[in-house]
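pinging the channel bc i need a second pair of eyes. not urgent but kinda urgent?? the chain im working w is below, pasted from the shared doc
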Amino acid sequence: MNTQLKCKKAEIQDLHKIIELLADDELGRKRERFEDPLPESYIKAFNAIQGDPNNELILAVLAEEIVGVLQITFTPYLTYQGGWRATIEGVRTNKFLRGKGIGTQMIEWAIHLAKERGAHVVQLTTDKQRPEALEFYKRLGFRASHEGLKLHLG
């Protein structure tokens, strides 16, 4: 584990770097618009996330440089006797630093947050076109216990 790596909550000035990370792979390039200036939709989404106490954008920072990002969302459910779930999405690390433990530390930090908030489960999805990501999550203890389905609208 990299002891110099710090995890922190994102701030608006971090948004450009966050979108750059999200767009910096084959799938991300198809769905993100990393431009200068960024599309207004990213700023609106960032503000909505920051204004929601059940959402957090977490950054991994190494030597003052943002090298990773993830979003964690806490959702109350009636199942599990009114339990809370934590959902991790949008996990990205700098492509030049993959395999160095950054993603592991980010996920461990998110799991710690989930435990602090009393969540009974941490869940995530990964695109089937990212088999290396699936193996990464399995190594961290995640199991494919359910079938996940998505319906893209529009």
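so The beta strands are 6-9, 55-62, 65-76, 84-93, 119-124. and Residues 102-116 form the longest helix (15 residues). — does that match what u expected or am i reading it wrong
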